[in-house]
């Protein structure tokens, strides 16, 4: 019941948002939105990377497979959100919607076309980097398995064995 109440409150919050222009001239507004939808113990400096953040470029270019999209002419995200759990993903989607921002999701870096970290249009977008979502949960009793977006157990095992 608590989960239903939580999801309902998230939905209501998303519906009450006032859409703004698709540029984030005021990052503070997005930060306020994000901090109001995540756990109070969340370290926003490990969740949100602005273009002037020291780790922004390294995070952006960390999984680009096609270097043609690493050029200065390629539109870059206004910010990168790197959630550690599904609640941070939900909060990111709500805040992007509130601010009228498009989202590009990146998980495993297997995107040679560059669709997950660039935009063909000059519109503003946020990169939702799902790299931290790597767990696998198996419920044997109910015959259910949950695999998070960036999980690549074979690749991780192979890289540890090398």
UniProtKB/TrEMBL annotation:
Keyword hit for Glycoprotein: yes
Listed InterPro entries: FAD-bd_PCMH, FAD-bd_PCMH-like_sf, FAD-bd_PCMH_sub1, Oxid_FAD_bind_N
Residues of the signal peptide: 1-25
Keyword DNA damage carried by entry: no
A GO term for molecular function: FAD binding
Pfam families on file: FAD_binding_4
Occurrences of domain FAD-binding PCMH-type (ranges): 73-162
Top-level taxon: Eukaryota
Keyword terms, alphabetized: Disulfide bond, FAD, Flavoprotein, Glycoprotein, Signal
Names of required cofactors: FAD
PROSITE patterns referenced in this protein's UniProt entry, alphabetically: FAD_PCMH
SUPFAM superfamilies: FAD-binding/transporter-associated domain-like
Coiled coil, from the record: none
Family membership noted in the UniProt record: Belongs to the oxygen-dependent FAD-linked oxidoreductase family.
Name the record gives this protein: FAD-binding PCMH-type domain-containing protein
């Amino acid at each position: 019941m608590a989960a239903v109440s939580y999801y309902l409150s998230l939905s209501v919050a998303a519906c009450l948002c006032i859409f703004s222009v698709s540029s984030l001239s005021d990052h503070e507004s997005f930060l306020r939105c994000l901090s109001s939808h995540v756990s109070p113990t969340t370290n926003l400096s490990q969740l949100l990377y602005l273009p002037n953040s020291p780790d922004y470029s390294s995070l952006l270019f960390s999984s680009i497979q096609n270097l043609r999209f690493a050029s200065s002419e390629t539109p870059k995200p206004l910010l990168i959100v790197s959630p550690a759990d599904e609640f941070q993903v939900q909060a990111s989607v709500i805040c992007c919607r509130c601010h009228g921002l498009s989202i590009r999701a990146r998980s495993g870096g297997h995107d040679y076309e560059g669709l997950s970290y660039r935009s063909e249009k000059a519109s503003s977008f946020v990169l939702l980097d799902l790299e931290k979502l790597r767990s696998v949960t198996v419920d044997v009793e109910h015959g259910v398995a949950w695999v998070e977006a960036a999980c690549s157990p074979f690749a991780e095992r192979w890289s540890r064995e090398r």
